[in-house]
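Blackboard transcription, Thursday session:
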Amino acid sequence: MSTQTDGSAGAPARTYSSYSRNVALRVLMTREMAIVVALVVVYLYALGNIQFFDGPLTLFNLSKEYAPILMMALPMTLIIITGEIDLSVASTLGVSAAVTGVLVIEHDLSVPTAAVLAVVVGAVLGALNGFFVAYVGLPSLAVTIGTLALYRGLAEGLIQDKRIAGFPDTWQDWPTERIGETQYPNIVIPVVVLVVVFAVLLHFTTFGRGVFEIGLSDEAAHFSGVNVARTKLVLFTLSGAVAALAGVYVALKANSVATDTGAGFELKVIAGVLLGGVSIFGGRGALHGVVAGVLLIAVLNSALQLDGQGSEVIQIIIGLLLVGSVIASSNLSRVRALLPRRAVKTAARSTTTPPTPTPGDDTRKVVQ
Amino acid sequence: MTTSAPRDAAAPLTLALRDVAKSFGAVQALKSGTLEVAPGSIHALVGENGAGKSTLVKIIAGVHRRDAGVFELLGDAVDFGSTAESKAAGVAVIYQEPTLFPDLSVAENIFMGRQPLGRGRRIDRARMHADSEALFARLGVSLDPRREARGLSIADQQIIEIAKAISLDAALLVMDEPTAALSGVEVQRLFAVARSLRDEGRALVFISHRFDEVFDLCDTVTVMRDGAYVSTSRVAETTESEIVSRMVGREVAELFPKTAATIGDVVLDVQGLSAAGEFHDISFQVRSGEIVGLAGLVGAGRSEIARAIFGVDAYDEGSVSVDGRPIAARRPRRAIRAGIAFVPEDRRQQGLVIEGSVARNIASIIRRRLSLGGLLTSRAENRAAAPWASTLQVKTSALDMRAATMSGGNQQKVVLAKWLATEPRLLIIDEPTRGIDVGTKSEVHRLLSDLAGEGLAILMISSELPEVLGMADRVLVVCEGRITADIPREEATPELVMAAATRSAATTPPAPTASSDKEPVA
Amino acid sequence: MTTLAPTRPTESAGVRVLRTVLRSRELAIVIVLVAIVLFATARRSSFVFSADGWRDTLLAPSILLVLAVGQMVVVVTRNVDLSIGSTLGISAYVVGKIFVANPDTSVFVVFAAGIAVGAVVGAINGLLVTVFNVPSLVITLGMMYVLRGALTHEVGSERINAQDFPAHFEKLGTQQVLTIPVLTIIALVVVAVVGYYLHTARGGRELYAIGSDPDAAVLYGLPAARRVFGAFVLCGALAGLAGVFSTARYATAFSGTGKDIELQAVAAVVIGGVAIFGGSGTVWGAAIGAFLLVTINRALPILGISEFWQGAVVGLLIIGSIVLDRVLSIRRQHRLLEARDHA
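(Written on the board underneath:)
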């Protein structure tokens, strides 16, 4: 390795460019952008070719149905980036819906009070997952398969054979009322707020940097002073709280709560996150990709529905997209390695014998 | 370049590699590897870290495929696509890092895939255990073949690797630093076995940084430098200094430029630190401007002590304080705030987020300071990282390059940059120059010397004895989890350090003799 | 550092086996299982001591038993197969279709067909996982969707019912030999054969090695890809067999057959003490886990716990099992460290 740069005292200060690829490549040649493009293409295709897709109800229904999925996908993104997984979100949603329903309809609590309590319950359930994963050291896959059953069991136990239906009209209608003259229901507002909050948390805070570091190497993160356990606890708690919020919404939207409310949502959430370019091994992903991933599933769903296809077709497509996207992303890095970069001189070992350092050149001050 | 290996004209060479090349992406790890090993001989392969020895070994083992060059085994051209193929062809390899299956028993680890079978192709466990015990007897150790491999000491793991390789009954046995974690007695046992294998007509390749071992055991020696073949000679016809100068391409004396520094107040004070199974009753101090070297065999507990001080691992008893203020256990962040910087042994796993960018790695500790109103931008990180990259002369084209694409020396500079950015009071550095090239090595040494000169307290763990003796103001020797010697710079000799490093707690220190001295690893 | 361990007194093989059994993780769940059966029987003797009760106790777990064995083989290699519920559904539908086309089809042909369908699905999973080197969790999650979707697309709201199945096949679902149901006997044979293979064959031990450290397995030269592929084929084939079981037992096949059973199979494996990240555990454990999971569901109402809380109890069981495993492993680690100090 050549040492010509340390030849003299006060070695010339090197300058570094911040990025190895120009802006266009950096933004466009990403996994996330591929999904955004796919979303736009599918949307435009549906607008042009599918009858009634341009109708006023399409975006409204789509937002209404996929709001809870998108909400739960946000903390799930962070959890998967740390290399963990939370399979219990849909069951937490179920518990929250049940708590809301039982409190409002059986105990006559006001909806806001019940909602707050439900979210607290959800946060506690999430924290329990986090405790097992972060502090007991259990694999999240196993823990959350367990709590998937446990929390669903709690929801069943709370509801039993009671009929929970009929929320107060004002609250029941609010989430699905339109925002002014737009095509979007009110629920879009909290969803957008959450998207922004999670995007900032993941991409523009030290906490978010820690999340990525844990996913890339939790040992290196630990050695850099990142509190790995606390970070995971916070994420699982957030996941529980957000799932609970989604649960309140789902209960109000349906105006009833059943023992299987939200059952199976966890797989849709995970499919959306992975489709959005988040690596199941952790360490990689971006929130705009996840939003695009969930919306892609949503748009495909409503387009196919309007086209007269059954729900099973969308199931097949989600499945194929999921399989295709992991295969593509695990092979994309190989493809990208072939793309031109600025020459990486440093990586190649110099072929010459290292020059002998001249004595007396160790006066260079390193620490200011 | 000197002549090629002397050989018996009648028998084909067991192994012949000529001008073998291998690149990983842009990094050319091996440019022209040449190695010719005759049957019935023990051949040493020496070179600095990064000289390409391990890549050569992995090509022989079938882990990597060569890009170019000749590769012959017993006279036939071969091209292994997997380790299974090389094994079938009669090659056994002991890798630097033990690769055991922690959930399986010791015996299964040795015989996996070729367990002795009884009736109905059923694994004959009794015979497998008996065979294992026979192997251990030959190596002079007593290990229970039935216990699971999880939790074994590094030395025991290495013993299992050796037993595994011997049991393969291979024509060629390659040993990549097999003695790094072994005590003197174990090394002698291994050598006895190696000699008996040689006398059976097998060929052995022995990689080591301990020259006394090379001279003790081997017949021929091949030197590599910077991924290329340098020379092959008979061990009897060469000297240590000849080999060393070929390895590094210049005189060694220049490697350790330690300048005198004013030694000030106590910065680090460790009292009675103990952790079950790791280390016991460790007490010492490091002063401002002082470099304290922690020497000892691999696995003696030096890294564990460092990790406990920094707080990434727990300890059972004792206390750690910096500048007189106690540091809470198991809280790396508090340790960082108190002014401790810790460059760990395993750069790729612990020192760096290896898949992360240069900028994020350098800014990873100081990023809290960089955020404005809780918001942190890549721009702020890049701006903070650039001057430190420049100060340490990190060679990279852009700050968003992944650390994984860089050479070991550059990676180490990134780790140092990340810690120096915190402006620490104490630097703990574990194996400062492991796996980095000669040029950067001297840069790192000079840097450490300068830092001490500016009043930083440095605790340096090193398995390279010359490094410890050249750099440290004071050498603490750790043996089996206890500090067995505290030697000031003037009195530190290789003999003294080695005696302390291999003394077992129960016995009196053996008088250093010419034959039993072992350098503590590399 | 020293490798000199105290020499252990030699003990007879019998003592060693006994000690292994007594210390085993499997014994813990057997005790729980026996306790539950005893309590339930004490409350209501017909739980076991009636023709139907006895038959149900043995028959009910047979489907999950077969699935858990297959799942265990995959999990031990540090993989997971979430598509087995869909595979079961497809196999059940194929079996139904065969009988609709020709009611006289031999039972053996039907079994072979169901197993073959499952093996094909398993082979697809195995190929995707090993060739593209992608995580099985995602691949089999995707396959679960694709297969279930394809099945629903094909079947629609059609339902193959009892009258479509020939009597000799329906009878198989409840038939007993020496009071033991035939399906249970087949399931136990599967448990025994696979368990024997994993314990005593080189290939079986290699599955453990691969799960214990996949990188070391490759470095060691084990045929890791081939073994993992084989594990997926076996798991698929057993899911196919479970599909045949399901039609024989319930005499029905529709688009939803076998839905959500994959998580139960994973749960059974985890309860049985198989590490979710591979390398350790036994087929016996997984089988007992499946037995326990099914039996506890049947026993809870008798034990006075409302059926509505069953899900919660199952969840607690899963969490309890993995916490137990963790505690045991920490204790073992401590013992090893202390042993090193005294060596």
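Lecturer's comment: The domain at 34-300+308-318 of chain C is CATH 1.10.3470 (ABC transporter involved in vitamin B12 uptake, BtuC).
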